[in-house]
Every structure is written in structure tokens, then in C-alpha cells.
Design a protein that fits this description.
single chain; alpha/beta; Rossmann fold; 6-stranded mixed sheet; Threonine synthase; threonine biosynthesis; amino-acid biosynthesis; lyase
């Protein structure tokens, strides 16, 4: 299995190379050169498997010769052994047709753990084969940072520099990052939005002078290994609800499009998905793109769902590439235009292709709060605001009533205590595995959102490329 760039000018890499590189050298994102597929019988055979064994079957076709099946199984066993629920991503029934897929049983209480616990082990495995010291640079709107830091803290041959927007993540999210005092962990609060942080990270990869000085890699969902790890829970949930004999719909709260793109990959592999419901908050670039073909950047509006306060959705590029005939040169020009003007129209092929599988809904703060209250009153569940955005979209979109709808519950409600308390009157408590989070020392730097300030900070602390 080889991986190619969405912008068509970078050389192909194997799974190990794509994992360590993160972003392609031409600014594009890596995708497998073809989609592996499973038969109906192969999906049906996964119904009784553990999460680890499901992960091995789903991920194995993507790793090529980079890992043996036994090596992959060992890494998955280690990664998912840290989860607090034996099912790893259990299903919870809300009513006669709505289900929650609980993705928050990992060490940092959010869905990012499912991918990043494995990605940290993949980094360590691949670096052991090389004389390389990896410098990870990442941007987070809240959950990626803590999950990535937990996954790589203290690991040999890795430093991590994580940017978050100052004052725009919850106190729990911030402390989960800034109280990790491992010597290879550097937290940076930038004076700007998540989009500013994400743009700085991309520029670091694309700046030839800076990138040539360090072995850079990414933990954001621009890293393909993160996305393929997330495909697993779509398969795991669907086969438990009757797939492949029964179609399933998924509602996904999303800002950066990575989580819902993993569902698209599952569909390309043959999983019978009726609909992928893209749920946005008022930062609705994805909703506008899917509904009207208008992918234009607006001003980020801070909300009670900070992980979705995004106006540039990096992973949308992967979908546009796949739906546009996989013409990397053409997409590169399309994305260059967007980066210059902050606006872009989808082509007819991209719009028509997306309409076959995706629908979307824009959920404002009032609808989010009402849905949190509904979950509490009707189903006895305290849910976080991001999951409530997904559930509100699931309620709003009309589908065949015989199709079960699974909402991805992306975070533990205790990560957003204030918003939950306002909506339900109940203040959730952190589970014991979070420890004494509010009694720990914090450590982070605050920097202006400028390329010069951030790269100067990183360069003073990162390990330079050998040779």
C-alpha cells in the first residue's frame, strides 16, 4: 500500500513514511492510492470480535509491509488496554432508533484517544528503526492536544509542541495539556483562534527553511494514521446494529472533518452507511459547503463547543480530492485559490459526489442546550455540548425510520462542566482516572500568533535534524 498526496506533486510513501511525515511536502494530505474493500461476509464475521481484533482486521490492509499482523495486534492491545470500558467504544441506546457511540473512555476523556493512543505507539515503533528524532508540531481546539500529549509524553526520540488558542478551550481541556510536565512536552497558548494555530502549523511544514532543519511530523487529523484508526469504530458499531444486512446512519459533530471523513473511508471500504450527517455549530463552513457548494472562510465565533470553533476544515481537502477524480494537480490549484482568497466553489463533481452520502445541519446554541436537556430528561443521560450538536442534527435530518442513527459522543461531559450545568442543572464530575487535575502545576508559554514568534520558540528547543 502506497500513499499519495492530494496535491499531486509529492512522492508516494509507504504507511511508515506517511505516518512519520504527517503532511506531504507539497502541502497536501496523504491518502491510500486505492481503497481496500471488504465483502459482506467479511463484515458479518466481525460481529463477535473484540475491539482490538476488529481494529486489526480494519487497519491491516492499510499498513502494507510496514507492520506484520502480530505487530499491529500488539500495538492495538497496548493502545486500547488503557481504556476504562471493556468494549472501548460502547453503544448506548437513547430511544427506539437513536444510539450514542461513546468515544470518551480513553485516558483524556475524548474521542481523540482512540486514534492517538495508537499513533503514539506507531511513532515509537517506527522511530526505533531509524536514527531520527521527531519534532511533532500540532494545533488543537481542545481535545487533540491533551490526547496527543498523553500518547507521547516521555517517549524516546519525540518532542511535541502543541498550539492552542488562549482562552478558547475549556479549563479541563487546558489543564489536561498544561499539567503534563514531561521534558519532551511544550504547550503554547497563542493569542488568536484555532484557525490561526492550524495555519501556523501548516506554514511550518511548508516553509522550506524551517522544515529542513527538523524532522517534523503531525498528530492532527492531517496525519493519515490517525484517520485510519478512527475508521474502526464505525465498523465496530455498524456490525453490532445489523450491518452488513442493515444500513446504519451516523451523526458526527465536527469542525475539522477528520472524524466524519473516517466514516467516508468506512463507506468506501464497503460498510453500508445510509447517511453521514455532518453536524456543525454556528461556525458552519462545512454546512455551507455541502448545502450550497460555498467553501468560504468566515470569522470564528467562540461558542460552548470550542472543539468545533473552526472555519477552515483541513480534512475536507481529502474528500474533494477523492470526489474530484483524484486529480492532485487540479485540486492543488483549487486549494491554492482558496488559500489566497479564503473562498472557493466546489465543482459539480465534488458537490454531486458528496450529496450521495453526506447531509448536514447547523446547530445553534439554543438547539444544543435543548438537546442536552432532552437527553437528560428523556434518556437519563448527561452529555457534553459537542455530542449534543451531533444529536440535535440526528433529530433534525429526515431519514428512513427503519435505519438506526448513531451519534458519535465525542467527549465526556465533565470536560465542559459549565455548559452542561447551564443546560441541565447538573454539574458533572471528572472520573477518577482524570486524577487531581485541578491540583497540579501548569506550564505553558503564551505567544503572539505570528510565524516568527512560534518558530523561534520551537527552534530554540527542538532537536535539529541529523546530517
Amino acid at each position: 500500500m502506497q500513499y499519495i498526496s492530494t496535491r499531486g506533486r509529492a512522492g508516494a510513501l509507504d504507511f511508515e513514511g506517511a505516518t512519520l511525515a504527517g503532511l506531504a511536502s507539497d502541502g497536501g494530505l496523504y491518502l491510500p492510492e486505492h481503497w481496500p474493500t471488504f465483502t459482506a461476509d467479511e463484515f458479518a464475521a466481525m460481529r463477535g470480535l473484540s475491539y482490538v481484533e476488529t481494529a486489526v482486521r480494519v487497519i491491516l490492509p492499510f499498513v502494507g509491509e510496514s507492520l506484520s499482523e502480530d505487530e499491529l495486534r500488539d500495538l492495538c492491545t497496548q493502545a486500547y488496554g488503557r481504556f476504562a470500558h471493556a468494549a472501548v467504544t460502547p453503544l448506548l441506546q437513547l430511544d427506539h432508533r437513536h444510539w450514542f457511540l461513546e468515544l470518551f473512555h480513553g485516558p483524556t476523556l475524548a474521542f481523540k484517544d482512540v486514534a492517538l493512543q495508537l499513533l503514539g505507539l506507531l511513532f515509537e515503533k517506527f522511530l526505533a528503526r531509524r536514527d531520527t528524532h521527531l519534532t511533532i508540531v500540532g494545533a488543537t481546539s481542545g481535545d487533540t492536544g491533551s490526547a496527543a500529549i498523553d500518547a507521547v509524553a516521555g517517549r524516546a526520540k519525540i518532542d511535541i509542541f502543541m498550539l492552542h488558542p488562549a482562552g478558547r478551550v475549556s479549563d479541563v481541556q487546558r489543564r489536561q495539556m498544561t499539567t503534563v510536565l514531561a521534558p519532551n512536552v511544550y504547550n503554547i497558548a497563542i493569542e488568536g483562534s484555532f484557525d490561526d494555530a492550524q495555519a501556523l502549523v501548516k506554514r511550518m511544514f511548508n516553509d522550506a527553511d524551517f522544515a529542513s532543519r527538523f524532522d517534523l511530523s503531525a498528530v492532527n487529523s492531517i496525519n493519515w494514521a490517525r484517520l485510519v484508526s478512527q475508521v474502526v469504530y464505525y465498523v465496530y458499531a455498524a456490525v453490532r446494529l445489523g450491518a452488513p444486512d442493515r444500513k446504519v446512519a451516523f451523526a458526527v459533530p465536527t469542525g475539522n472533518f477528520g472524524d466524519v471523513f473516517a466514516g467516508y473511508v468506512a463507506a468506501r471500504m464497503g460498510l453500508p452507511i445510509e447517511r453521514l450527517i455532518v453536524a456543525t455549530n454556528v461556525n458552519d463552513i462545512l454546512h455551507r459547503a455541502l448545502r450550497e457548494g460555498d467553501y468560504s472562510q468566515g470569522t470564528v465565533i467562540p461558542t460552548a463547543t470550542p472543539s468545533m470553533d473552526i472555519q477552515v476544515s483541513s480534512n475536507f481537502e481529502r474528500l474533494l480530492f477523492d470526489l474530484g477524480g483524484r486529480d492532485g494537480i487540479a485540486l492543488g490549484e483549487q486549494m491554492k485559490g482558496f488559500e489566497a482568497t479564503k473562498a472557493m466553489r466546489l465543482t459539480n463533481a465534488q458537490r454531486d459526489g458528496a450529496a450521495k452520502l453526506f447531509t448536514s445541519a447547523r446547530i445553534d446554541g439554543d438547539a444544543m442546550s435543548r438537546t442536552m436537556r432532552w437527553a437528560y430528561d428523556a434518556a437519563g443521560q448527561v452529555i457534553d455540548p459537542h455530542s449534543a450538536v451531533g444529536l440535535a442534527a440526528a433529530h433534525q435530518v429526515e431519514l428512513d425510520p427503519s435505519v438506526p442513527v448513531v451519534t458519535l459522543a465525542t467527549a465526556h461531559p465533565a470536560k465542559f462542566r459549565d455548559a452542561v450545568e447551564r443546560a441541565t442543572g447538573t454539574r458533572p464530575t471528572l472520573p477518577s482516572r482524570a486524577g487531581d487535575l485541578f491540583g497540579r502545576e501548569e506550564r505553558y508559554a503564551t505567544l503572539p500568533a505570528t510565524f516568527e514568534a512560534v518558530t523561534s520558540y520551537v527552534a530554540e528547543r527542538a532537536v535539529a535534524r541529523r546530517g
